[in-house]
Amino acid sequence: MATASTAGRLARQVALVTGATSGIGEAIARRFAAEGACVAVVGRNLERGDAVVRTIAQAGGTAQFFAADVTSDHAVRSLVQAVLQRFGTLHIVVNNAGLSVPGTVVDTTPQQWDEVFSINVASAYLISHHALPHLLARGSGCVINISSEAGLKGLKDRAAYCAAKAALIGLTKATAKDLAPRGIRVNAVSPGFVGPGRMWENQVARQAEAGSQYYATEPDAVAEQMIGMVPLRRFGSPREVDSVVAFLLSDDASYVTGVNVEVSGGST
Questions:
Q1: CATH 3.40.50.720 occupies which residues in the chain?
Q2: Residue 255 annotated among the catalytic residues of the structure
Q3: What's the confidence (pLDDT) of residue 264?
Q4: Into which CATH architecture does domain 14-192+236-262 fall?
Q5: Which is the catalytic residue, given 125, 161, 214, 215?
Q6: Which helix (H) or strand (E) holds 62?
């Protein structure tokens, strides 16, 4: 059974967070643990996953790493069962796993398109599909889907990613309407440029390597261009995202469902 702290807004809650081994996902996992939740840290990299769990434990929190391919129906089914076996229940689901590749609809290959949709959208469907019955049986719980400003305004040279993140917002709103009468709240959070971190650095590096008519070909220049698109003139921090997620899961947001909260420094 769960052994979460009795203190904090998420005390005695069990949370499953995908893509939780770095960046926003790691920040969310650490925030949840600090707020009293037991956290299932889900990812594919054992070394990074164990490092996140150690950090949480050193701060007095409770977490366990679960390695899983969240694009596989069989793997996700097994993951949810493993989390239930470890913690005894499940209250919160955060679908954060994501992938972005540079390219217009002309440049993006069908394989890249499928991979982006699989990781960003299909994973959220699969996790929700297998986890939600356990929340519904109790008549309460929350789902947060991490989308992106890209799904709202579009970004140059990011066709697949923009389309996938827009789809995730649509999935959020539809699921919220379906499940609200049964006590489940579903919301989305759309970050803008968030860094520093592995995903930010990878995005900048890939964009610089690919080059295009829109971006420079040196990482520092690409980063400067991206930050220049933000009215606040800086990238956000993972902490500025995890604080919004924690709020949406708390009793302070008990009448909030079906919304998409933009955490983008004004860029949308």
A1: 14-192+236-262
A2: no
A3: 85
A4: 3-Layer(aba) Sandwich (3.40)
A5: 161
A6: strand 62-67
